[in-house]
Design goal:
This protein is α/β, with parallel strands linked by helices. The chain has one domain. Helix content is about 25%, strand content about 15%. Strands 4-5-6-3-9-12-13 form a seven-stranded mixed sheet, covered by helices on one side. Strands 7-8-10-11 form a four-stranded mixed sheet. The longest helix has 20 residues. The relative contact order is 0.18. Bound molecules: 2-acetamido-2-deoxy-beta-D-glucopyranose (7 copies). One 2-acetamido-2-deoxy-beta-D-glucopyranose binds next to loops. It holds the Pfam family PC-Esterase. One of its GO terms (molecular function) is O-acetyltransferase activity.
Amino acid sequence: MATTLTRAPHKTLPIIFLLLVFLVTLLLFSKRSIDPHLPIYTSTDPYNPLPDPQIPHPDSISTEKPPILEPKSTDLELLNNDSILKNETGFVESESVDQNPFVESNSDESESVKDDDLIVEKSSVLDDEWVKKSVDWGRGCNMYSGKWVRDDEYPIYKPGSCPFVDEAFDCQANGRADEDYMKWRWQPDQCELPRFNATDFLVRLRGKRLLLVGDSMNRNQFESLLCMLYESLPNKSKMYEINGNKITKGRGYFVFKFEDYNCTVEFVRSHFLVREGTRINGQGNSNPTLSMDVIDKSARRWKRADILVFNTGHWWVHGKTSRGKNYFKEGDYIYPKFDAVEAFRRALKTWGKWIDKNMNQNKLVFYRGYSSAHFRGGEWDSGGTCHGETDPIKTGRIIETYPPKMKIIEEVIQEMRFPVVLLNVTRSTNFRKDGHPSVYGKNVTGLKKVSTKKEDCSHWCLPGVPDAWNELIYATLAAAQTN
Ligand SMILES: *[C@@H]1O[C@H](CO)[C@@H](O)[C@H](O)[C@H]1NC(C)=O
Ligand SMILES: *[C@@H]1O[C@H](CO)[C@@H](O)[C@H](O)[C@H]1NC(C)=O
Ligand SMILES: *[C@@H]1O[C@H](CO)[C@@H](O)[C@H](O)[C@H]1NC(C)=O
Ligand SMILES: *[C@@H]1O[C@H](CO)[C@@H](O)[C@H](O)[C@H]1NC(C)=O
Ligand SMILES: *[C@@H]1O[C@H](CO)[C@@H](O)[C@H](O)[C@H]1NC(C)=O
Ligand SMILES: *[C@@H]1O[C@H](CO)[C@@H](O)[C@H](O)[C@H]1NC(C)=O
Ligand SMILES: *[C@@H]1O[C@H](CO)[C@@H](O)[C@H](O)[C@H]1NC(C)=O
């Protein structure tokens, strides 16, 4: 766009021509921004108002190929088996997660203010002993090397029974017929996980605020946790969003209160954990930037929580970071070109410093590791698929895959003073090619033909895989008192 404008003719040409050029480029720009994303997220863009969640979004059946295809991320190839390996397809780090930073609004900023009024009684003496024990156990037991075992008592909540699952993850309601994917329990090799007990979880949360911070993967986990806890409540109306908000991908902040336990479970969206901003370029257009050295605005909310669960990662790709051009920022300096992986490292260090400075021994902080995607035969925007997968992977190279970004997280956590518990779930997710919504991220019941052009092989159906992550959190909390 910039070049078009600078090459625009001189004053001698009619001003109308300039206007035309501008309009055309504007059109191209917004198209480019909207197209290369999964249908479930295009609905959040301000040019394209949020549809009724029951109605399939029209974009979702679009067969148009997006104009820009990203290069494959070779470090993250997750492969189903060796025959697929040879075709050089399979997992490409998803760019399908969450909204497009180009078009994202900060609309959730305005709705937040009231949360200061939220009355959650702090226990006057926070028992930091439980935190210490949780951390010790979380770090001592390797819960992450293990296997999925079939368990007919699963899922923990019935599909369709939970009002907090948004359409994108509500696979059974959307027409998915197979059910086996909900019947797997994660079984560590070296330690026993306690059976999930929602009442007990809530008792342990009494007087506390649990906050999930991150991208739509964490929203996925957040909805799962709400469902797992909701299931156990004898009186369901004693749990509610304090502002009456319904969960949608367009909103960035939710606080659910459990009245009988004086506790909350909250989510705040923060794609990068560091601060997104904008700059005005030479042509007067507003472009996104990311300050690697400044913590995200939502951090003021992080401070108030007692238990925090962070994630980031899926947005650290070319397509979501302006291809690293004039995007990454340090101080006032905007790098003309900067590598997304190095930016990720610096941002996480910023996060680590913030945690070290602002968290005390009464807080329990988790970082939930990278959740793997499974695209077969293409990428998320070019026909990659996981449709028809009904069983976890049993063997193969795919299971060993461990992304470089996870190594960076490990490094950063090791250098920190504050003892963050790494929920190292990546390996467990590698197995679960059967757990994604694929085409069931929207209601396809009754449709004659289901489009397989764009599938969601990044997020997870609920009930499903994120339930296991919450069981790990529960196990960590529960360990504090059984040790
Ligand atoms: C590997 O994938 C290919 C293509 O999806 C399939 O035909 C083949 O049966 C698979 N092999 C194994 C061992 O799963
Ligand atoms: C999905 O669509 C079918 C057929 O149009 C409809 O009967 C069903 O109620 C829909 N399900 C949901 C969860 O909206
Ligand atoms: C779950 O926890 C509650 C509260 O600690 C306890 O009363 C109950 O017996 C537990 N249920 C099971 C099945 O262990
Ligand atoms: C459930 O909770 C609501 C709100 O506190 C209350 O009005 C209602 O009476 C309760 N219902 C039962 C059956 O206890
Ligand atoms: C919860 O908080 C309310 C006031 O906000 C208080 O009256 C009540 O005793 C508390 N309940 C428990 C179980 O701590
Ligand atoms: C892999 O490539 C072979 C031939 O090169 C082709 O027949 C097969 O369909 C491909 N498999 C996938 C999953 O793309
Ligand atoms: C996390 O799990 C991977 C295996 O998937 C392992 O290689 C790595 O060392 C683990 N990291 C930590 C900190 O336990």
